[in-house]
Amino acid sequence: RMRSVLRGCGSYLPARIMTNAELAQKVDTSDEWIVQRTGIHARHIAADDETTGTLGLKAAEAALADAGIPASEVDLIIVATATPDHTFPATATQIQAALGVTQGAAFDLQAVCSGFVFALATADKFLTSGAAKTAIVIGAETFSRILDWDDRATCVLFGDGAGAVVLRAEEGAGTLADRGVLTTHVRSDGRYMNKLYVDGGPGSTKTVGFLRMEGREVFKHAVVNLADTVRHTFEETGLTGSDIDWFVPHQANRRIIDATAHKLGISEDRVVVTVGEHGNTSAASIPLALAQAHMDGRIKPGQLVLIEAMGGGFTWGSALIRW
Ligand code: ACO
């Protein structure tokens, strides 16, 4: 049985850091309010000449370097993003060209904050079916461009950044001891669109639009849906929270992360948390967190890593990876 083995991981954050104190000069908020409700202290913001494509490219290059795999071997590039550089073509094809890749396929995938989980699940199907051999899965976002900077309820929550992983199709034994993506689950339910959406687009205002959110409602659904998707993983594999070496959740909010880890029986010292310094970077948050924990030596080869996310749509999902 073929497995999608994770060969490398990389990330990129814009240099510019915006603190809560700086935000408090723009809107009626405070460091104390933001930290208490979200755990966020600061976020990175793209410079005028930076885009989702340029951030994603740097993350992809870092992941390829970490893997020691040349770009010429890549035959699948998926970019999970809700903030593409252009309405079309896909940001993935721009990154493909910048990497000098002319074979295989590149496309964007839109599942907002769950985008990386959906893209990983999609790449896994390509690799395990034999449709591709070497994939880069990128989560890249510039949410600063779709924020209403006068809306204190949303502008304090998000940041920009990108992360990427390189996956390669390799023979496995078909057991949970195999390295690679062991299982993925993805879900969506479009009835909840109005809880979290962007009010623009070609089919509405014909402008890019701004993010709109009913925060309390999103919070409630997030904790329920995230526990539910991971429960499927546990049922399928016979594992429990205590078997997980590292829990790397989508980084939306410290309180959602803590509540979910508690529900799943995963102890605090096994949770990778980056939301404090990154804010919510949507589809980029999981690969950014994976890259950080990989680089600082926390995640070691052979360990079990559980990822999960929930976002606009609603969309949600999870994946279990043996590193
Ligand atoms: N600073 C100060 N006060 C604020 C701010 C702010 N930045 N934002 C809102 N408030 C005020 C509100 O105006 C409201 O005041 P009022 O009572 O006078 O009307 C009060 O704070 C409470 O507002 P709520 O929205 O009810 O606050 P809540 O406790 O729910 O916290 C928050 C808001 C942090 C957004 C919370 O609902 C949350 O974390 N939701 C999850 C949303 C999320 O993470 N979304 C990310 C995308 S989806 C995902 O990735 C999972």
UniProtKB/TrEMBL annotation:
Keyword field: Acyltransferase, Cytoplasm, Fatty acid biosynthesis, Fatty acid metabolism, Lipid biosynthesis, Lipid metabolism, Multifunctional enzyme, Transferase
Presence of the UniProt keyword Transferase in the record: yes
GO molecular function: beta-ketoacyl-acyl-carrier-protein synthase III activity
EC id: 2.3.1.180
Domain named Beta-ketoacyl-[acyl-carrier-protein] synthase III C-terminal: residues: 235-323
Domain Beta-ketoacyl-[acyl-carrier-protein] synthase III N-terminal: from-to ranges: 107-190
Region (ACP-binding): 251-255
Location of the active site: C113, H250, N280
Classification via InterPro entries: ACP_syn_III_C, ACP_syn_III_N, FabH, Thiolase-like
UniProt keyword Transferase present: yes
Xref: CDD domains: KAS_III (cd00830)
Pathway field: Lipid metabolism; fatty acid biosynthesis
Catalytic activities: malonyl-[ACP] + acetyl-CoA + H(+) = 3-oxobutanoyl-[ACP] + CO2 + CoA
Protein localization: Cytoplasm
SUPFAM superfamilies the UniProt entry points to: Thiolase-like
Domain comment as written in the entry: The last Arg residue of the ACP-binding site is essential for the weak association between ACP/AcpP and FabH.
Family statement drawn from the similarity comment of this UniProt entry: Belongs to the thiolase-like superfamily. FabH family.
Subunit structure of this chain's protein: Homodimer.
UniProt-listed PANTHER family: 3-OXOACYL-[ACYL-CARRIER-PROTEIN] SYNTHASE (PTHR43091), BETA-KETOACYL-[ACYL-CARRIER-PROTEIN] SYNTHASE III, CHLOROPLASTIC (PTHR43091:SF1)
Protein function: Catalyzes the condensation reaction of fatty acid synthesis by the addition to an acyl acceptor of two carbons from malonyl-ACP. Catalyzes the first condensation reaction which initiates fatty acid synthesis and may therefore play a role in governing the total rate of fatty acid production. Possesses both acetoacetyl-ACP synthase and acetyl transacylase activities. Its substrate specificity determines the biosynthesis of branched-chain and/or straight-chain of fatty acids.
Protein name: Beta-ketoacyl-[acyl-carrier-protein] synthase III
Highest classification ranks of the organism: Bacteria, Pseudomonadati, Pseudomonadota, Alphaproteobacteria, Hyphomicrobiales
